[in-house]
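Example record for the data management plan.
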Amino acid sequence: MSLNFVTRGDQDQTLGLTDNTQTLSDELFDGIPIPSGFEALNWIPENAIHQSIVLTNQIDSTRNFLGAQINTVRDEVRGKTWATAIEHGQLSLWEIDGSGQTKSVVSTDNVWRSHIVLDKFSGTVKAAWITNGGAGKVLFFDGAQVATAGTDIDFPFFDLAQAPIGSAQTTPSPYGVLTYKDRSSGTIYYRRFTTTGLDAEQILTTDPTIGGASLAIYDNRVVIRIDAFVGGKIVPKIAESTDDGQTFTSFVPIVLPFDPEYSVLPSPPVVADIAGNFHAPVGARHETQGNGMIADVILDHAIVEAIPVTVLALTDKFAVERFPKKDVKPEPDNLSNPFGNGITDGAGLIMVALSEDGALFTSNSQAGGILYPPAQHLNHEMPHIYGYDSTECYTRGIEPNVVSMDYIYIERDPTTLLPVNGELHLETWDMPLPIPVFTATASGQEIQVHIEQDANFFPGETTFTFLDSGTTITSVQVTGDRDAVVQTSGESPVGKRLRFTVQNVFYYHQAETVVQ
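Corresponding structural encoding:
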């Protein structure tokens, strides 16, 4: 009798799961199936270690974790996180806040891929998705089917013109831009939209690309990014609009300083920070060694190395996320640098990168991308991660000088490097911000307070407290973003320890100093 010899390598491909994502084409983002009930032996559930929330165990494909599409967003004003996932073809939406989670169904029509954006004014989530049924792939946007000249539509992406992170949206968004791709022809389309509906379909590009087009909006400026396919490699390109997305420039390649032995990876979305700077994250992998580097391309300013990664695969996800840090206008003698002091005191960003072996890294750039500190390995004590999606950062109000980020993920078997099962987890990171630096100078019973860096005062949301007895605060007047006057009575305030606290839905900063 002749029997097949099942090697260890054969066993590592349990249930026929194979990694078929290493070819530069649109198929790169089609993912692999996750069979029901597949689970590694001797596995310690992640939620037993970090108490994560399991939103569902019905994820049957890795597809929606690949590409630029966004699956989770944070509503700072209302204290909610929204997450979407495709459960056996059903697009589900979870609303998560301090009281728990609520699930609703967006579509049951064999959803292929989806993308969501938070409407900050209404507090609702807008969605674009692709169904894949008997009539082929069909695009839906905001609940309605979208007619298009394309025959094989995929990679939906859109954004709204809204107040930046850390600000409330007080009026409806004036416009937005939607993009999608016809995989059969390679054509990428865009459509501007307003509260009255979608404008006419327009061609963005017909050049060969990998995946679709991501975009970001700040005021009347729209930046669109594609991954052009040139000479067998990815070349990231940028097109811009300065008329609210009505017309766009031609695509221009981003000139990268990488060694020729490095190949650029498929790109995450471009983003705009709190100060209106546009950031295009770029990853590159050494063609023979496998190691890589994640950089932040700050349009009009610099390309900044953020995270070196030991092992990087084509589909390993990375992204730059914003957090609500007040930007500091450049000093008069340094007008070319809109990033505060270039180290901490500016618009905040966090770079997140997932390596091929399931390690998740972040680097917290307080300055807004012009300088990134060494990366932290976030999940060194957790099971490995196969795919993830993260929100923008926000203030939980639990501890001062801390920024938080929610993320959803599926786990990775460290032996096969494949998904463990179809469980979708939700967890929160908490990361420290610099302690603000300020001075307090007394003249009699009056104290002039000035923040040197890493915080701002807000009228009506700023309090002062003496940590020593004998002196009483009688009034506080905020006179500028970083200046305040504190009136006191009782003992002289000189030598006393003074604390300020600034707290609202976006910011929670606190620091202490001795009055001089």
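Summary line stored alongside the record: The radius of gyration is 25 Å.
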